[in-house]
Design brief:
Blueprint: H1 3-20, E1 25-26, H2 46-51, E2 64-71, H3 78-88, E3 93-96, H4 98-103, H5 105-113, E4 117-120, H6 133-151, E5 158-159, E6 165-166, H7 168-176, E7 180-181, H8 199-207, E8 214-219, H9 223-238, E9 242-243
Parallel strand pairs: 2-3, 2-8, 2-9, 3-4, 5-7
Antiparallel strand pairs: 1-6
Helix pairs in contact: 3-9, 6-7, 8-9
Length: 254
């Protein structure tokens, strides 16, 4: 390939990305330590989240926590998680895929019956930056429709981009479809079911990152999370935190 042709291809790619507003980002953040706030200041996408009013943190002046779970598939622990949430009186948001709706209808119905929010995690869990606008809307509409038919939940206000991969365009399209994109400010590598370290590890990872206004991401496939959840809730409350439903988040902090 000649130097000129290579340059032309690079320029065409840059022009395409610019035109599509589709530079991909993989969500990441600087974790909280010792009660300090998590940060996305160095990640390069803070302005995009602000522009589209996506959620990263809630009110950082209040000791409030927002508990969210990603449910791409069932691994046998969601019943335990729901039992703990019911026992402790804690609301949560569950971001589910099309596979989860089809495979676990009774659990989805239980989530809504017990007052939890169902969020959209797309139908087939694709990298949304690699699909056109129409396909993206279809991915979201299919989940919303299936959940409405199953549970009667007509509204679906929140979405979480699959794999945490997003772009300016992805956030714009989902926002235009009526969704608020939800990211997180507390998380750890909990999704690998082959690498579980025990409930104490999960407890330590989450508690070390707590901060006012935190949005906590946990994956329901983790045995560690299911076993640690009750202790996490109890200790957070001892520290003066209150668990609130995501739809009660009024102040967005970045």
């Amino acid at each position: 390939m000649s130097t000129v042709l290579a340059l032309v291809l690079v320029l065409l790619n840059v022009a395409y990305v610019s035109a599509q507003g589709d530079r991909p980002y993989h969500f990441g953040f600087k974790k909280s330590k010792n009660g300090q706030l998590a940060s996305i200041d160095q990640e390069g996408f803070k302005d995009i989240l602000q522009k589209h009013e996506a959620i990263f943190m809630g009110d950082t002046k209040r000791k409030e926590l927002y508990l969210t779970f990603d449910n791409g598939y069932e691994n046998g622990y969601t019943v335990n998680i729901l039992d703990v949430l019911k026992e402790k009186g804690v609301p949560a948001a569950f971001f589910i895929t099309g596979h989860y709706v089809k495979d676990q209808p009774e659990l989805v119905k239980r989530m809504t019956a017990e007052g939890h929010l169902i969020g959209n995690h797309s139908w087939s869990h694709p990298d949304m930056t690699q699909v056109p606008d129409g396909k993206m809307k279809e991915e979201l509409d299919k989940v919303k429709t299936a959940v409405a038919e199953l549970t009667g939940q007509k509204e679906m206000a929140f979405v979480r981009p699959p794999r945490g991969i997003f772009s300016d365009r992805v956030l714009a399209v989902s926002k235009a479809s009526g969704y608020t994109n939800v990211f997180w400010s507390v998380a750890y590598k909990d999704w690998d079911t082959k690498v579980q370290h025990g409930s104490q590890f999960a407890y330590d990872q989450v508690m070390a990152q707590l901060h006012p206004g935190a949005v906590i991401l946990l994956h329901s496939v983790s045995k560690d999370n299911a076993e640690a959840l009750g202790r996490i809730i109890d200790e957070a409350r001892k520290q003066g935190y209150e668990f609130k439903s995501l739809d009660r988040l009024e102040t967005r902090s970045y």
